[in-house]
Amino acid sequence: MWWVLVLVVVALLGLAGVWALWLRNRETDEDEEPFISLVGLLSHHRQLSDYEIQQAALRAFGHELLLEEGEDVAEAIVSEDELGVHMIFCEEAILLVHDHPGSYVEHPEEFAQRVSDLRVADAVRRHQAWFSADVVHVNKEFSDMAEQVRWAFRQAARLFSELVDHRCLAIVIPETGWVIPVTEEVLQALEAEDPLRALKESCPLPVVPVSADDPLMKQAVEQARRTWPEFVRAFELRQGKDFGVKAPVRYRDREEFIWLEVTALEGDYIYGTLANDPHDLGPLKFGSRVRVSVQELNDWVYFTPQGELRGGYTIEIIRHIQQQRRTQHEADSES
């Protein structure tokens, strides 16, 4: 669904500002290796055992572990359980696993208030522990730094995938500034040959609170409804692809505006499947089938046969609102 990839840009614009303050204050040396890390924000402390680390390393790297003939996997791992640190030696890289109770940030509530995506803010507030898989040294030659970074992220993702479980609320990538809520698609992306690219493409769309009275949003919604016949005509004639709409979806007393992949138009109703996981709609999740009213349409989007994007009137407005909030939070932090 290419229109989802376009919308992911909005998500990443929001995520990129989340760790901006931390990244800006981090001292770096041009001669140092890049900081390669995947951090999992956990609902509660896991306290990884030496055995769990050994088995995860064996599944992730197997024969790549730095071992002499006849040595056990434990010989390639140095653990400081009291510090929550485990060092894993492979033939071409050295990795660390950190495993700590407590918050990854000093003031979770204050930090969460800077985040426009409700799911990310919720993960920051709720997490009680964290773990990470870090590549601290690469013993391999590469043609350029970009290639080395891709390779190193692949190694970190291999180890992270073997350690992550249901406790993980979100994944933090300090090098890029992304904070990504965990979904099945995100976990699958970790196993890709290029995890960073796969994570970017699978990043859940942001759940951003926007006032119904916001004048720019009202104008965008009115434009979407006024031009709705264009979408209907293109959909019925199949003159395009990746047809999606945004509309309110409800479960009991809860409501969220969510993008749907349209499957049918019948009279005053639009049928489709959820294009991302809701923030808090009970059993509804990515792929759930729903019906929404045309009268409550918030936005629409599709690609023409020539690959041109049509619709998406609220996307730029949400990006603008995210940028405003991020700028205000940075100004407040500096004052």
Please provide a written account of the structure:
By secondary structure, the protein is an alpha+beta fold. 37% of the residues lie in helices and 26% in strands. The two termini are 43 Å apart.
Helices and strands, with pairings:
Layout: H1 2-16, H2 20-25, E1 36-42, H3 50-61, E2 77-80, E3 85-89, E4 93-101, H4 108-112, H5 118-126, E5 129-138, H6 145-163, E6 168-173, E7 178-181, H7 184-189, H8 195-202, H9 215-226, H10 228-236, E8 241-251, E9 254-266, E10 269-274, E11 289-293, E12 299-303, E13 309-311, H11 313-334
Antiparallel strand pairs: 1-5, 1-6, 2-3, 3-4, 4-5, 6-7, 8-9, 8-12, 9-10, 10-11, 12-13
Helix pairs in contact: 1-11, 3-6, 9-11
Output the keywords.
seven-stranded antiparallel β-sheet, alpha+beta, 11 helices, 2 domains, six-stranded antiparallel β-sheet, single chain, 335 residues, disordered N terminus
